[in-house]
Design a protein that fits this description.
Shape: globular
Order of helices and strands: HHHHHH
Oligomer: single chain
Strand content: under 5%
Number of strands: 0
Number of helices: 6
Helix content: 40-55%
Distance between the termini: 42 Å
Structural class: mainly alpha
Amino acid sequence: MGTERADELDALTRFCVGNPQLEELNRLIGGFNIFEAAGLVRDEVKHSKFLSFLLNPNESHGLGTRFLVGFLQSAIEAVDPTRLPVTPLELELWNLTDTEVRVEWSNI
């Protein structure tokens, strides 16, 4: 990989992953708990259905793959990167529009 390409990938990764402005936006909206507001704090089945709705890029929330990609990026950032076959940047670039999300599949 050429130096210019490596610099471009590094800049794109810094923009997409660990962006302080995006993290600040998340912090600002992160205090609201929709489950508490709806009186559903202890209803795990409804939590699963709601998360399925957000993770499914084909639902009517208008987020497309944004929530799915952010969720997966957060998950892989918590793991040793040498143990994973994918990077946060690769997730940003993948087409995940056909992702299938299952709720309570096989009692899991």
